[in-house]
Amino acid sequence: MLDRATSAVITERLGDYPAVALVGPRQSGKTTLAREIGKRYFDLEQEQDRLRLDVEWDQVVAERELVVLDEAQEWPEVFARLRGEIDRDRKRNGRFLILGSVSPVLMTQVSESLAGRLSVVELAPLTMGELDSKAQRTRHWLMGGYPDGGVLSGKGFPIWQRDYLDLLRQRDLPNWGLPAAPQTTQRLLRMLASVHGQEWNASQIGKSLGLTYHTINSYVDYLEGAFLIRRLAAYHTNIRKRLVKRPKIYWRDSGLLHATMNLTDPNSLLDQPWVGASWEGYVIQQIISSLQAGGVIFDAFYLRTSDQHEIDLILDLGNALWAIEVKLTSRPGRDDLSTLNRNADLIGADQRVLISRHSDLIQSGNQTICDLDGMLDLIHDLR
């Protein structure tokens, strides 16, 4: 089994809270990781496991063993039971590990029943830093991070990704409340792939689908809650320039994006006119996922002004502000760094990082030029 960086955070939170909710997309490895941490396991998607938990409830909660409840959103009644049991002994921590394939925004039972009683930890698909071999790391951008999606074995992409999205749009998303027909969801996903890395314009997408922008935004809320899409917020600050206020839209997993765009091999990827946006989104996701896996508290933004000053990723770490620029090149130039510094000066960034495909690490004061590996090393030092 691959070591997951998130496991240390889960163990730490279980020491501080009665319950921990481990959320993330289906097939990201939640069940495998949870069963390594706790042996008392119930899959609440299965009727027999729900019955077993119901019958054995008093015995289960009386034991000192960690209880793992998988796909908890499929059996909402369990949340009221959990609240009552936790409140009976609030000083006892590390009792329940609750797994869910939708975010707490969609798991309303978590926010309503267990507020203040649990900590939420997100598990993303495999990050580049969690992979063992050079071959796995090389195909990670093309195939994405889902363990069964080809990144580990080199087999299955893009068929696995297409089947995964088909199951989500036909079964899971409707079950979680998305009112769109599966065919509409499929068209929406293709359109979202075409605007990956661009400013979000719900009205434009809505016109193409014959829907209002309110409806499109509500649909994307579900896709975001299912960990398919990320809306990266625009950074707001007081500078003498007019700022773009719309978020940017990104697919979280590059393999799902590429499968939706009918890509099959790395050479085809490099030939695409949107390859730069794909690389930018991939790098941003790796940074954010690695920070989350390390338990780092942060906020993420991008910056764009009306006269085209731009920063791809801004990390607000509370005590420091990082400005990060992503380039798909192995030969970053002085102009690239000068542009980053000029834009970073607008927001008073404490650290400036230029990420390219050049493997040498170059640091001078608060300026760093590195590849993605080097950036992940910098993140590791923040933990």
Summarize the structure.
This protein has 16 helices and 13 strands. It has 383 residues and is an alpha/beta fold.
Report on the architecture of this protein.
- The chain is of the alpha/beta class and 383 residues long.
- 46% of the residues lie in helices and 16% in strands.
- Among the domains are: 6-122, P-loop containing nucleotide triphosphate hydrolases (Rossmann fold, 3-Layer(aba) Sandwich), CATH 3.40.50; 267-383, Trna Endonuclease, Chain: A, domain 1 (3-Layer(aba) Sandwich), CATH 3.40.1350.10.
- The protein is built from 16 helices and 13 strands.
- β3 (67-70), α4 and β4 (96-100) form a beta-alpha-beta unit.
- It starts with 5 loop residues before the first helix and ends with a helix.
- The relative contact order is 0.10.
- The model has no long low-confidence stretch (mean pLDDT 93).
Fill in the keyword field for this structure.
five-stranded parallel sheet; 383 residues; 46% helix; Rossmann fold; Trna Endonuclease, Chain: A, domain 1; alpha/beta
Shape: globular
What count of helical segments does DSSP give? 16
Summarize the amount of helix as a percent range.
40-55%
Oligomer: single chain
Which spans have pLDDT < 50 for at least 5 consecutive residues?
Answer: none
Q: What is the typical, i.e. mean, pLDDT?
A: 93
CATH topology grouping of the domain at 6-122: Rossmann fold
Order of adjacent strands in the largest pleated sheet: 8-9-10-11-13-12
Biggest sheet overview = 6 strands, mixed
Element-by-element helix/strand order: HEHEHEHEHEHHHHHHEEHHHEEEHEEEH
Structural class: alpha/beta
Based on the coordinates given, report the CATH architecture of the domain at 6-122: 3-Layer(aba) Sandwich
CATH homologous superfamily assignment of the domain at 6-122? P-loop containing nucleotide triphosphate hydrolases
